[in-house]
Amino acid sequence: MNITLRVWRQKGRDDQGRLVTYKLTDVSPDMSFLEMLDVLNEKLTLENEDPVAFDHDCREGICGACGVVIDGEAHGPEVTTTCQLHMRSFKDGDTITVEPWRAKAFPVLKDLVVDRGSFDRIIQAGGYISAPTGTAPDAHANPIPKPDADRAFDAATCIGCGACVAACPNASGMLFTAAKVTHLGMLPQGQPERASRVVNMINQHDEEDFGGCTNIGECAAVCPKGIPLDTISQLNRDLLGSLAKGVG
């Protein structure tokens, strides 16, 4: 395959970025998208040019480190992580535009790399439980109804990649926050902080300059782990219940 890339290049958060065009030849359809970027960077290095900076780690769709906007879609044309997107999803001769996540809460560090520390601070605000340390309890010590366990498990699959924010017209991080709130709120171990957790995490979400949620649904449509949109409904119920109790 012969591919034309239009890649966002930006030296730092205070610099003005621009799209730069590169041409690649003999791209294998079996390459992952990140492997294709590796090939581009090898080419740039041999030409004594600065390689394109992009985030990655496990490259197995587990860690959530990778993530770019490809032709206007978070993670690209398939509902998967960027590292699991393969070049066979494109056609010979395609022009592909690659940009970073676009959100005030995700400032660009360099090229395609953004600072997602805002997600970490949301978790620090309430994404934990109070539990005594020591010997682990027996697996059956706290019976949990299967619907609750399934709901918690589904929410826990969130990898914090940020695609929900990149896809949302408001740059809201509500699906991420709702997943973290729901994951712990459905389990008995998460009940002591349930009321304060949702209030503290929402306050931190807003403090980080994420936009407000208007239930457009683009977040769930691009989520590589399939976090359902009604997870946000769970967050709203918890939030209203906490405020009714005078929490926050």
From TrEMBL:
Classification via PROSITE patterns: 2FE2S_FER_1 (PS00197), 2FE2S_FER_2 (PS51085), 4FE4S_FER_1 (PS00198), 4FE4S_FER_2 (PS51379)
UniProt domain 2Fe-2S ferredoxin-type: residue ranges: 1-102
Q: What is the lineage of its organism?
A: Bacteria, Bacillati, Actinomycetota, Actinomycetes, Streptosporangiales
UniProt keywords (A-Z) are: Iron, Iron-sulfur, Metal-binding
Q: Of which family is this protein a member? A: Belongs to the succinate dehydrogenase/fumarate reductase iron-sulfur protein family.
Stated name of the protein = Succinate dehydrogenase/fumarate reductase iron-sulfur subunit
Instruction: Identify which cofactors the protein needs according to its UniProt entry.
Output: [3Fe-4S] cluster; [2Fe-2S] cluster
Pfam families, from UniProt?
Fer2_3 (PF13085), Fer4_8 (PF13183)
Q: Which SUPFAM superfamilies match?
A: 2Fe-2S ferredoxin-like, alpha-helical ferredoxin
**Entries under PANTHER family matching the protein:** SUCCINATE DEHYDROGENASE, SUCCINATE DEHYDROGENASE IRON-SULFUR PROTEIN
Q: Where is the 4Fe-4S ferredoxin-type domain?
A: 149-179
**Which stretches are annotated as coiled coil?**
none
Quote the InterPro entries the UniProt record gives.
2Fe-2S_ferredoxin-like_sf, 2Fe-2S_ferredoxin-type, 2Fe2S_fd_BS, 4Fe4S_Fe-S-bd, 4Fe4S_Fe_S_CS, Beta-grasp_dom_sf, Helical_ferredxn, SDH/FRD_Iron-Sulfur
